[in-house]
Amino acid sequence: MSIARRLTLLETESFTAESRLGKMTIDLANTCKQVTLMTPHFPQMKKNKLFLFQADEIQRRVRQLESKCMNNEANIEDLEKLLYEARTMYQESMVLTVILHAKSKKLSRA
């Protein structure tokens, strides 16, 4: 049960991180567009440096979110494998329990 809950939480966290990644990518594109459109028009380099600084910060944040998403996806895959193995073991143990129960009934009748 705890593996399934953890898997659900990681999927939720992954969805949230992917949403933030999408937003940051859009922000990066908008900032790059602003820099491209405004660069020829301004003589003050301070504004240009500010846009470039914002773009660098957005790119850094995008890389962080991509890394976090990849780590979450790897964790989700590992947990799915563990969940599959746990369910398989549970099913096998239930089959063995039924077999042992049937054998014990046979022995008690004899």
Describe the 3D structure.
By secondary structure, the chain is an all-alpha fold. It has one domain. It is built from 2 helices and no strands. Helix 1 runs antiparallel to helix 2. It is rod-shaped. The two termini are 40 Å apart.
Order of helices and strands: HH
- Any idea how many domains? 1
Spans where pLDDT lies below 50 across 5 or more residues: none
The pLDDT mean sits at 78
Largest sheet: none
Q: Tell me the Rg in angstroms.
A: 27 Å
- Structural class by SSE content: mainly alpha
Q: What is the CA–CA distance across the termini?
A: 40 Å
* Count of individual helical segments: 2
How much strand content do the residues show?
under 5%
Shape: rod-shaped
Helix fraction, binned, reads over 70%
Q: Got a strand count?
A: 0
How do the strands and helices of this protein lay out in sequence?
Layout: H1 2-38, H2 45-109
Helix pairs in contact: 1-2
Keywords:
110 residues; mainly alpha; 2 helices; 93% helix; rod-shaped
